[in-house]
Amino acid sequence: MDTAAQTNPEKILQETLPHLALGNDSRICIILPAPDNEALNIIREAAFNLSINMVHHGLLLKGTEEKLRSVGFNNIKYLERQGILSFEDVKEPERVSIAASLLFRVTSKDPEVTKELERRLAESLKNRFLYNASGEIMNQFVLLIANRAP
User: Fold this and answer.
1) What is the pLDDT of residues 58-103, one digit of tens each?
2) From residue 18, how far is each of 64, 71, 73 by CA, in Å?
3) What residue ranges in the chain does DSSP mark as E strands?
4) Fewest Cβ atoms nearer than 10 Å: which of 13, 22, 48, 92?
5) Residue 146, SS3?
6) Dist CA 145 CA 150 (whole Å)
């Protein structure tokens, strides 16, 4: 099963909103990787030509905003933030396998692409960590904050 479908905020909102008690002062905060997130770029590169449905996060944000506006959340703002996935305390060769495992787990559960994707991620990270001795991967993200206007 592809986790892109499981983590689509539009789909999650569609399923969740009917169960929330939404008053005039309701606020929803959604955290998503930024469209040019370095960790996502590594995953996209490794997943090239594999059968993984990776929707661009800019499109996910736009669709989520439209869904929220359709149910009365007209005050929407975006806050960009920087985060770091740090593997500096992990020595080689474990650093590559642990980083690859983390990135892999947020990508796909499809057994047909599992081994190849994990292999590609490990190869990409091995090369990246050669030139990035700190073992850090930028993890930029966006907070979508939506308020209902009274």
Assistant:
1) 777 888 888 888 888 889 999 999 999 999 898 888 999 899 888 8
2) 15, 10, 14
3) 27-33, 75-81, 84-86, 136-138, 141-147
4) 48
5) strand
6) 16
